[in-house]
Amino acid sequence: MQDFEKLGLFYLGRQYDLAAGKPLETPVLYDSRDLLTHGLCVGMTGSGKTGLCLGLIEEAAIDGVPVVAIDPKGDLGNLLLTFPGLAAEEFRPWIDEAEARRAGKTPEAFAEQQAQTWRQGLEEWGQDAARIERLRRAAEFAIYTPGSTAGLPVSVLASFAAPAAAVRDDAELLGERAGNTATSLLSLAGVDAPPRSREHTLVTTVLSNAWTEGRDLDLAAIIHEVQSPAFTRVGVVDLDTFFPQRDRFDLAMRLNAVLAAPGFEQWFEGDPLDPADLLFTADGRPRVVIFSIAHLGDQERMFFVSLLLHAMVGWMRTQTGTASLRAILYMDEIAGYFPPVANPPSKPPLLTLLKQGRAFGLGVVLATQNPVDLDYKGLSNIGTWFLGRLQTPQDKARVLDGREAAAPGGLDRADADRILSTLGKRVFLLHNVHESEPVVFQTRWTLSYLRGPLSRDQIRVLTSRGSAPGATPAAPSPRPAAVRATTPEAVDAPPVVPPGIQQFFIPPDAAGASRAPVYSPMLLGAARVSFSDPKLGIELSRDVVYETHIGSGAVAVDWAGATQVDRPVADLRRAPDPGASYEPVPPAAMAAKNYAVWEKAFTRWLAQTEKIELLRHRGAKLSSNPGETERDFRIRLQDGSRAARDEAVDAVRRKYAAKQAALAERLRRAEAGVTRESEQASQQKIQTALSFGATIMGAFLGRKAVSASTLGRATTAARGVGRSMKESSDVKRASETAEAVRAQIAELDEQLREETQLVAANFDRPAELERVQLQPKRGQVLVHFVALGWHPK
Length: 793
Prior knowledge:
By secondary structure, the protein is an alpha/beta fold. The protein has four domains: 32-153 and 272-473, Rossmann fold (3-Layer(aba) Sandwich); 166-269, no CATH class; 503-611 and 775-792, no CATH class; 643-702 and 712-751. The radius of gyration is 37 Å and the shape is elongated.
């Protein structure tokens, strides 16, 4: 395990000595939880900003943290260029031949040079091919290209679907999402419609009304509702007065032009824009999802980015609170999407993510080379600043203004200005509000090959070679359809049913809603079934509706042949649709006393057949929720395991903190003793030498006999020799003491490393799940009714 391979810490590079112009041996390890207060990376072209941010994403992937990355330039796709063999053959397909010619080399020779450069670079930074392979295994990497088939396609249809209940129940959040979606859509259609304009108000009302009712929309439905809204008033004004029908028709045609534009159908193909599915594979492995939008126009970029940010807000609101990093949203070249004065559709959801992401474990990382185009008031929520080389004094001034607004204190402005003026390539000033002082560091060598922006053809090659995105789990097989009466003698008048028999009509599905139904009589049962298990902490109730055929034999009803009705009880109607016809009712269904018997049989049948199957992890003492897939349960276990791992690592570090501090203090005192004894020994040697010199000089100044004073000086010099030897011995003892303390520190560090590895081993084991099946207990089946039901054909 390398010094930088520590749980929950991202290896970003090494501390840098600006005076010497070279990196030090001390690694810069960034606590992943510090990213919950978000990060900003600023640096001009050529500063190494891209390498730093790609390295950060690599570290997140290695730690099992999923990432959603928005790529306006096209160079984040380099994350898929990982070559464990570090061989020229792996680099050759990605060599820019024009660059090779400028270097005076053939593409093959240039590929060999690049492979050698990457081997040496990784080695210099303590990395190797094994770490590249670890990155590839840790997460799945994918490039999505909205509006294009170059990468994986993504559908925006889901973006107009009704948001999650957590969003619908928050009137302010729902209104904000509807308003910003309307702004994005109208902007895409080329309609200049600022907030509170009639166009913006109409589309916002269409969206919010449908979403409040839980209705999904697509672009075609929005066009239809703009022409013929489901409401007749806007505020207190009549709809046709507020927005005449002819004008609404013109707006609908503008929106229809977007839908009918050549190639726009590609916006409706592919995976839905749902972070819950995008962040993890079907088996629960984290993903690094790159949305490459370099091929889009400005309006299309703003449209897509706004929808994606709103999707991230909706996903965030469905998560539970956590103190660990659950996911990262990264956006390169943020300028234009987060301006200081204007309010584009992308800005409100981004502000929401910056203000609320911390509570839900979502870290936001933004990058730009144009700091003057950022809203620093909004960036006051950011706690980590990566400051690289900047081009102009104005850029430095704006960066320092923003940093002081976001994190007052901690770094003198004059010192910061001086440091920023001396930064070289790949050298950054890291200011983290969670640390006591800023650090200047040089970024590590990336595991990915940085070949520059990828073309659409290159993205297509990567997508065709890479693994497909996680497939959505298949829906469970439906129950077999109940056998229905097919008597052709249908009549137009409903039958006269004896008193005491309830009747309910099942609404026709979408396919049959346009014609008058033919009703077939069935036995309909509705009940509430409860499940409980105190050991598993489960208390669940669900309403079910079943229908079964009513026969004419000795056993008229057999619930074993029943099928579940895909309608809630509230959807059942008391009255039939107009113009309906009816098949004859079997005689057994016309006797009211039979319904009490059938109700008891229905209760027994439900108690025997209704069950739920849950997944259980004994170690974590957690069970899956009803309806939760194995994939989602494993993801939840991973979140809990990561949080527990972080707590365990903190506990280990706290356990050793006092000992480390004590040893550090002992080492300080020992080293001070070495310095003190060395100085005393040096002074004694000088004094002894002077004494000897004085004695010798006195003996050779022409005196014929040795005087008493000369003998005294000789005696003093001799005693000085003894003291000098004693001082040398004291220096040796002090040095041995310091060395012993260093050995103790090394031993303690090794113990800490071993315990940390044990923590990693305990949490790296794959989750072993067991299946638990629950059935309702006595008294947990409450039948609402057993009635005569009418099923439309």
